[in-house]
Design goal:
Length: about 140
Amino acid sequence: MPRVYESGIIPATPAEVWQRIRDFNALPDWHPAIARSELEGERDIGVVRHFFLNDGGELREQLLALSDRDRSCRYTIVESPMALTNYDATLRLYPVTATGETFVEWYAFFDVTEPGAEEETTQAVSGVFSSGIESLRAHFAG
């Protein structure tokens, strides 16, 4: 079972970063690869976001947990062109008390569905996470 982990420092408070990313449907507002997103259902645990990538790809993800206290969300991929299943991802923010900045971590576990596709799939997920974190860093560095 591959694990992808990316992290970074965002030059803003966790409250400021959380305000930008908390909405499960806000991915197009802060992630550079996402063109648009639509929710399928009510804005609550279990809602599915159907989003469209700039390159034409489509994914559907389901919200599994959302915590304002922990400033975290957990979700799974319901439908994807990638060769994976049993995808479980978490995005979480932590305060950097010495500087007032935010430490962000984004990680996922999943199974690869095609023999020989583990490296490609892992790199794709890593690229999604790292580009999202970099976009947040650049936005707040502004």
